[in-house]
Design a protein that fits this description.
By secondary structure, this protein is mainly alpha-helical. Among the domains are: 25-137, Glutaredoxin (3-Layer(aba) Sandwich); 304-393, Serine Threonine Protein Phosphatase 5, Tetratricopeptide repeat (Alpha Horseshoe), CATH 1.25.40.10. The chain is built from 21 helices and four strands. It has helices at 2-22, 33-43, 57-66, 70-79, 90-98, 126-137, 143-152, 157-167, 173-184, 195-204, 211-218, 220-227, 229-249, 253-264, 269-285, 289-304, 308-321, 325-341, 345-357, 361-378, 383-392, and strands spanning 47-52, 81-86, 106-110, 116-121. The chain has a four-stranded mixed beta sheet, with helices on both faces. A hairpin with a 5-residue loop joins strand 3 (106-110) and strand 4 (116-121). The longest helix is centred in the first third of the chain and has 21 residues, at 2-22. The chain starts with a helix and ends with a helix.
C-alpha cells in the first residue's frame, strides 16, 4: 500500500513538474497553416506567426529569453493563436514567399481571414514585444487602416509617415518605397529639400535610380544644409547596402557586377569603402581570385591601410590561394603593415608562411622564431610555430 501511494505521489509530482515546465515557455502550434487559420476562426483570435530558423541566433535568443517571460507568455496566450514555422522547411519556404519574409525571426499578425495586420522582425525585449503586440491588436495601428488612411489622402505627410513607420518594423524596405514615392510625387522637386520630406526619403526611398534619390545626389549640399552631412551620408551608405548586400549574400555575381556601376556613381569615401569590402567578399565566396586580386590592389592602401585585422585577412587569402611571387610579395607588404599597427601571433605566422611560399627561408625562419617567442611570452600555444620550424628545416 505504501509503495502504491509513493508511486502515485511520484507520478503526480512528475505530472505537476511537466505542467510547470510547459508554463515556463510558450508552446507554439507547428501544424500546417490551414489548420492554424481554422483555429483562428473557431477561437475568434488573431494569429501570431513566427518564422524562424534553427541556425538563427536572434531566433534562438527570442525563444530562450523572451518566450520564457511570464508576462509575454500570459499576454500572447490570452490574445493570439500562437504558431511558428521553420523557414527552411518546405512549408516555411511557402510562408516566407507568401508574406515576403526577408529576415529572421519575423513575426506576422493575421486575422481569421488571413489579412496581415502587423509585422515585426528581429530581436525584441519582453516589454517591447508586448507593446508591439498591443499595437497589432489596435485597429488604428494595423496595416489595413493605415493603408486606407494614406491612400484616401496621400498628400498628407502625417498619414504617409504613420503608414511608413508601421511598415518598416517588419517589411522588406522595397515595400516602403510605394507610399513614399506616391507622396513625394505630389511635390515640386524644388520643395523636396526640407526636414519633413527628408523623413520620407530617408525611410521610404530605397531605389538608387529613383528620381527622388537622384535629386538628393544632385542637390546634396541643399539636403546637408537642412538635415546635416552625417544623415545624408548615412542614407547614401544605406542605399548602396540595400542594392548590393542581397546580391553578395545570394552570391549573384552576374547582377552584382551589373548593379555595381550604379552604386559607384555616389562616389563618397564611405560608399567606396563599402563597395571595396563587397568586392572582396563576393570574389572570395565565388573563388574568383583574379578579380579578388584586382579589387585588393585597387583598394587596400586606400581603405584597409589602417585596419590590421583586414590587412591580415586579405594577405591570408593570398597565402592560401596565390602562387605567383609578385602577388605574394605584395601580401608580405600588407602583413608587415598589419604588424606595424598591431603585432600579433597569427600575423607573425602568416608572414613566415608567405616568405616560405616565395622560398625566402631566412626570413621565414626569422618570423617563425618571432612568432614562437611572442606566443611563449603571452602564454599561447606554440604548436603552430613549432610545426613551421620543422617544415623549414
Amino acid at each position: 500500500m505504501k509503495i502504491t501511494f509513493k508511486l502515485f505521489s511520484f507520478a503526480f509530482f512528475f505530472l505537476f513538474l511537466q505542467q510547470s515546465v510547459a508554463q515556463n515557455a510558450i508552446s507554439f502550434d507547428e501544424s500546417n497553416y490551414e489548420s492554424i487559420i481554422k483555429r483562428s476562426k473557431a477561437e475568434k483570435k488573431p494569429v501570431f506567426l513566427m518564422i524562424y530558423a534553427t541556425w538563427c541566433p536572434h531566433c534562438n535568443k527570442m525563444k530562450k529569453e523572451v518566450f520564457t517571460d511570464k508576462g509575454v507568455i500570459d499576454f500572447l496566450n490570452s490574445n493570439f493563436i500562437l504558431a511558428q514555422q521553420d523557414g527552411d522547411s518546405e512549408a516555411g519556404k511557402i510562408l516566407k514567399a507568401k508574406f515576403k519574409v526577408k529576415s529572421l525571426p519575423t513575426f506576422i499578425f493575421l486575422d481569421q481571414n488571413e489579412t496581415e495586420l502587423y509585422k515585426l522582425s528581429g530581436e525584441y525585449t519582453p516589454e517591447a514585444l508586448i507593446s508591439e503586440s498591443k499595437n497589432a491588436l489596435n485597429p488604428l495601428m494595423q496595416f489595413p487602416y493605415l493603408e486606407k488612411q494614406f491612400y484616401s489622402d496621400y498628400k498628407n505627410y502625417d498619414k504617409c509617415m504613420a503608414y511608413l513607420m508601421a511598415l518598416r518594423k517588419g517589411n522588406d524596405r522595397k515595400i516602403l518605397s510605394v507610399p513614399a514615392h506616391k507622396y513625394l510625387a505630389t511635390l515640386p522637386e524644388k520643395d523636396l529639400a526640407t526636414n519633413q520630406n527628408w523623413m520620407i526619403i530617408s525611410n521610404g526611398v530605397t531605389d538608387i535610380k529613383s528620381k527622388e534619390f537622384q535629386y538628393v545626389l544632385s542637390h546634396k549640399k541643399d539636403f546637408e544644409a537642412v538635415v546635416g552631412e552625417n544623415r545624408v551620408k548615412r542614407k547614401m551608405v544605406n542605399i548602396v547596402t540595400e542594392l548590393l548586400k542581397p546580391l553578395v549574400e545570394s552570391l549573384d555575381t552576374v547582377n552584382y557586377f551589373k548593379q555595381r556601376p550604379i552604386a559607384t556613381s555616389i562616389a563618397i569615401r564611405e560608399t567606396e569603402e563599402l563597395i571595396f569590402t563587397y568586392d572582396l567578399t563576393i570574389n572570395e565566396l565565388s573563388e574568383n581570385w583574379k578579380k579578388y586580386d584586382e579589387a585588393a590592389l585597387n583598394g587596400v592602401e586606400k581603405f584597409a591601410w589602417e585596419d590590421a585585422s583586414l590587412l591580415k585577412q586579405i594577405a591570408s587569402n593570398y597565402e592560401k590561394n596565390f602562387t605567383n611571387k609578385t602577388s605574394l610579395q605584395t601580401a608580405i607588404k600588407w602583413t608587415q603593415r598589419s604588424l606595424e599597427l598591431n603585432e600579433s601571433y597569427d600575423g607573425l605566422l602568416l608572414i613566415s608562411k608567405l616568405y616560405t611560399k616565395i622560398s625566402d627561408k631566412k626570413q621565414a625562419v626569422s618570423y617563425a622564431k618571432k612568432a614562437k617567442e611572442f606566443a611563449t611570452k603571452l602564454g599561447f600555444d606554440t604548436k603552430e610555430s613549432e610545426a613551421l620550424f620543422k617544415q623549414l628545416k
